[in-house]
Amino acid sequence: MKAIELNDILTYKFLSEIRYAPGGRRAAFVVANADEEENTYERRLWLYEDGKTRQLTAIGKEGSFCWLDDERLIFPAVRTAKEKKRAEAKEAFTPYYVLDLRGGEALPLFELPFAVSGIRVLDGTHFAVSAAVDKRYPELWSADKEEREKVKKEREEDKDYEVFDELPFWGNGEGVTNGKRERLFLVSLDPLKVEPVTQLPDDLLDFAVMGDEVFFAVNPRAPRLSIRGFALRAVNWKTGGTRAVLEDGELCFEGMESAGERLWLFANALRRFGLNENAWIYGVDTKTGALSVVREEEYGMYGSVGSDCRLGGGRQCLEHGGSLYHLTTREGSCVLHRLDADGGDTPLVTKEGSIDAFDVCGDEALLIALYDMRLQELYRADLKTGEVTRVSDFNAAALEDRYVARPEPLSFESCGRELGGWVLKPRDFDPAKKYPAVLDVHGGPKTVYGPVFYHEMQLWAGMGYFVFFCNPVGSDGRDNAFADIRGRYGAEDYQNLMDFTDAVLKAYPQIDEKRVCETGGSYGGFMTNWIIGHTDRFCCAASQRSISNWLSFYGTSDIGFYFGNDQNDADFYDEPEKLWEHSPLKYVKNAKTPTLFIHSDEDYRCPLEQGIQMYAALVDRGVEARLCLFHGENHELSRSGKPKHRLRRLKEITDWFEKHSNHTSA
Predict the structure, then answer these.
(1) What is the mean pLDDT of the chain?
(2) What is the pTM of this model?
(3) Residue 666 reports pLDDT greater than 60
(4) Is the distance from CB of 471 to CB of 477 less than 8 angstroms?
(5) Chain centroid to CA 177: how far?
(6) Is the distance from CB of 512 to CB of 436 less than 8 angstroms?
(7) Helix or strand or coil: residue 525?
(8) Rg value, the chain, Cα
(9) How far apart are CA 466 and CA 511, in angstroms?
């Protein structure tokens, strides 16, 4: 069988946003693919009906949608030459098209004067819409052409500098966010009417629809964002009347869902396990605003299984029949559960792998999932039996006659715990031969690796490497206490990884222990930086979008002013020595391992200076190092960066491994 090759990712199809029509007879979803020539991605709408799939749109600009009724769906897209020209001029607008499944082309339906981030259909002519606005020009969306041109000219004159007067002042994947707010609007058609609901400087957090009311949560933004505190309000979308529901100054808001006639709130007091504590589920009395605990949740209600073969998202939680259906990560898999009104949580679909998005109709669910070491496909699930059936074949050709390594589970003991990981064997494995290997460390730290298809790992296995990965303490998939490593970064988690490496080398003596490479991104990048300062057992390392210095991270990362303190259980002002104690840069004087650094100049989660500091220190001390900087990319480079950049990133890492493991792939 042929090996997975670097460029194969250009042939993969990525599925997202599965949604049933209101009547449940059919469902729509998005299929994306890389466009290497344009160095971007194409996205199209597809339909699932009567057990079959068919393509609905062709232009390749249709990345989201919602159902207007059983026969019609609407989607935002820039399709005409005039719209493209306006978009290139960075005009804020969102054109919506309607597609009737009974026949005909997609037709313009309405256009909104701002960049829409979310939309809910209230009825055939009314919508609740969230959109980004600038508090410096709060009513620009409703201004006439002359006023818009005036503001455009002002911005053009000011384009060479930025003014920051808030914290955070930028966001990963968003650019400069200073002054920007998410705002809720009510939109009606015939004629088009747009009415703002939330008032600035409030920042919209989420909204949910219950009958004639739209419930919405806002953060009363001050110059310094507080992660605690929110206000819950409601607006009657028929009359426009608003009312206060509750004000809370302690809980950290994480989301909400309507369930029949009940509103459920996901929030966290942060008292037991800090920022990574899984949200409790509260019931909200929408008349009085009283909160009641439905479930003190020990597991997250979302998926966190890592893969580089997704593009786009989808529902992680939804209401159906008065219950909440939700994804949850258990060990190395993402599964589907149902939460009932009494707090009972019932597993429904527990197949090993990762459900990436889903929707429910009756006793059936449609899943977009990574199962059986395949790329993403569409599956139908019987919610009574948990049985899953594949109903699409988008990626069969991409993996036809390709060697796909099967993860072999490996349990090991470390620091008094039993932990688990997986090992991929190299293509054409011969037990009499010696092989190089790669230890891959996931990000987060509160995510997991699992037995799902991962392009970079399969590439290396196809080239003749063992690849091994595990979920050390701090990972998701277990309870809150397991995920809590505040104040212990680089301690037990590091030991877990070293013990896992020892266990793999013992179980697979075909691995040449002098030719083991190591890599990781984000938290995995932090750990890579930590590893090279504490051991020289690896022949080389590749540190990606990393953290090296918690002190500088505090003031430069979009989450630095609260995440660093929380995760290190230290205060920047009173305990800087503790932040430094857990900074890999402190130990760089011990480093001997040749290290490649991958970073992006628009990564505001783990800013560029984090990688630069480690790189500079290694070069200064005479250790072989290389820094590959990607312009115009952010923290998501490896998952959703431009196709050519993703290929170059992976080539850089692979070439580094090949050079330092003295390996020549077949």
Answers:
(1) 96
(2) 0.96
(3) no
(4) yes
(5) 19
(6) yes
(7) helix
(8) 25
(9) 7
